[in-house]
Amino acid sequence: MKRRFLAWFGILLIVMTVIGGVVYFSPKAKAGDTSSVSISLSGGPVKSKSYIGNDVEVKLKLTPTGSINVSRSPVSVVLVIDSSGSMSANGKMTAAKNAAKNLIDSFKNSVKSGDKLGIVDFDTFVNDNSNFYVKGFYLQNGSWQKGNSSTIYGPYSLPNTCTTSLLELTNASAVNSAKSLIDNMVASGGTNMEAALNKAKNLLDASPSGNDKYVIFITDGMPTFYLNGTRNGYPLVDGPGSQPDNTTKSETLSAVQSLSQSGAKLFVVGVDTTGADVDKTFIDLMASTANGKSYYISSANALNSILQDIFKIINLAVTYDNLTVEYPIPSGLTITSMPLGWKVENGKLIGAFNPITFENGGGTPAAQEISFKINSNTEGIYNLGKATLTFRKYDTVNGESTGSLEVNLGQIEFVRQPGISATFQVIGNGNIFVPNTPYDAKLTISAYGKSLDIATVINNFSLSVNNSYVTLQKVTTTNPSLNYAVDSGPTPTSLTIDYKVTFLREGTISFTPVLSYSINSTTNSMNLTPLNLFVIDANNMIKSFSITKKMIADNSSANLLLKVDDMGLFNYDPTSKVKIYVEMTPSNTLNTNITFPLQLIVDNSTRMSNGLRIISKNVLFKLKPNLTATKVNFNVSRIDIISGGMTYTTAYEKKINDVVIKKATLR
Question: How far is 225 from 152, CA to CA, in rounded Å?
Fold first, then answer.
């Protein structure tokens, strides 16, 4: 329990150290300076104005500046390879072997006098043919089996695929020997990271004092075993065997801390082909504790390029990676195209540039440029805002740091392309018109948009309708036009063309005005808003006007009767009304039960007979005193047609003459 407490206290101390920015090891100054290189971010739209609905390309450019040409110190590098059983899956073991041998070749091809190399192969323990005991597990036919959890088995030893000491990289025979060790590695057993790190430290402890020390650690999992003291003078391996626990992690981090205090830097490569085997946070902590760098990859095929990147860093390259771009998309704009692998998430465009490496003696890396496209369907000037680049920089001489860059992308204006809208209006009393009568009409054309490329002329306006019962006569004798200058609106912004329109029949008439015109000599056309109106001749509405008897006894009644042809008015507008005015002359000789002029209403509910609307009114006639007889006339004098909130009035005349009212004569 005491050991576990001390181990976790060590972890806490490490985390606090990393967060606080204090390191246990300050690297020695090397010959030359690697801090002069940098990167910059620039960008903006390729054009500042565009038509709505058209894409605008926005570019982001990442530009490296400077180069590195320095002499490095000799190095001692220990390559640690996880050969646990899980490394046999998904080609990981084969990829690790090939990448490791390619790494050795890279060091050999740029070897400096004094460069040294060590190889450590590990699984349940280090594969160096040394004796060890295991608690709870036993080795049978080359495979580890779970035994009694409290039983200690052994001693065991594993085939030797580790170097016993650091090899001279200038010695071709030693280099070939290291490659042979790698070829003989076999995936089997668990994952004892602590033992592997201790072995790497032991090799580096014999490194010449002038050498910079590095450990490159390849693993596909987490620590499942640790060292729990000794048994009969040999290391005792303990742990759950299949999954990591707090003890395996804390003991591993203690070994990392010891490695760091000895002056070594640690590069950790986590190969997680399932997405569930490597804890990225843990390998990040391992690397940062020992002033190194971590890599998390999902494919074993990436191992070779990662190890080559590590070689460049050890050779005093400076790398920029995790080059992540975030761009908040302004309201009203839409991303219509983006680089492969980029995405829009939570209102932001998110993506990354490729890592940049300033190789020692390799000159300045090439700039990178990406572009995305934006669009808007609304006119306006849009401030594109800022794009932010965050990055991680690793400099072997000066250590790891993070930073960010911003670029203001400027603004862009989206405008409508030059075009027109138009309305056609027949000027009358509402939507009720009389046949064969010319009415004033007006075509109003309004221009919109800007001409960004070339001057634009819109002219040659011509109006037609799709109904043979409607005739148009153009009254305006000129042919006006709308003229656009580049990057400005039209002059004038609207114009009118006068017409006369005549309807050749009665009833409902629907038609669509069609406007033809030219834009820079290219013919165009548009359908205007359809018109639906009613043509009626009130003189033909009343088909008969009668009274039930033309000789009426005093103090008796008779019916006034009208038969009305609505000509389809109520089909056109069911809420329409026809108001008929009936006058009686003279009106001063009789008393009646109604008031003249009499107003009779015909609507959609008025009864019909033989296609006509029938309306009647009973009138009581009484002679005024001192009169024995009189003669009166009835006249329909006016008709109002009420439709769509408008009233169309026409004078009218239809008479009933010489209706006699007299007192009865007794015989």
Answer: 14
Residues in the chain: 667
What's the confidence (pLDDT) of residue 7?
A: 43
Q: Is 355 helix (H, G, I), strand (E, B) or coil?
A: coil
Q: Give the residue carrying structure tokens 């050999």.
A: 108
Q: How far is CA 191 from the centre of its chain?
A: 44
How many of the other CB atoms lie within 10 Å of CB of 660? 13
Q: What's the distance, CA 405 to chain centroid?
A: 23
Report CA 483 to chain centroid distance, whole Å: 38
Using H for helix, E for strand and C for coil, what is the string for 31-42?
A: CCCCCCCEEEEE
* Nearest-angstrom CA–CA distance, 514 and 596: 49
**Cβ count within 10 A of residue 12:** 10
> For residues 146-181, b (16+ Cβ closer than 10 Å) or e, as one string?
eeeeeebbbbbebeebbbeebbebeeeebbeebeeb
Q: CA dist 273 to 87, 94, 302, 309, Å?
A: 10, 14, 11, 20
Contact (Cβ atoms closer than 8 angstroms) between residue 247 and residue 280: no
Model pLDDT for residues 588-608, shown as the tens digit of each residue: 999 999 999 999 999 999 999
Q: Minimal CA–CA distance to 230: which of 195, 204, 258?
A: 195
CB contact at 8 A, 504 and 471: yes
pLDDT score of 269 more than 80? yes
What is the 3-state secondary structure of 564-602?
ECCCCHHHHCCCCEEEEEEEEECCCCEEECCCCCEEEEE
Q: Does the pLDDT value for residue 13 go beyond 50?
A: no
CA–CA distance, 185 with 461 (Å, rounded to integer): 86
Q: Which residues pair with 614 in a beta bridge?
A: 563
Residue 96 token pair: 């690790």
Per the listing, tokens 């390799």 go with: 362
pLDDT per residue as tens digits for the range 79-107: 999 999 999 999 999 999 999 999 999 99
DSSP 129-142: S--EEEESEEEETT
Q: At what angle do helices 2-20 and 246-261 cross, to 10 degrees?
A: 60
- Residue 558 near residue 547, CB atoms below 8 Å: yes
Q: Which two tokens stand for residue 196?
A: 């592997």
Chain centre to alpha carbon of residue 3: 53
pTM: 0.69
As a whole number of angstroms, the distance between CA 348 and CA 108 comes to: 46
Give dist(CA 166, CA 532) in Å, integer. Answer: 98
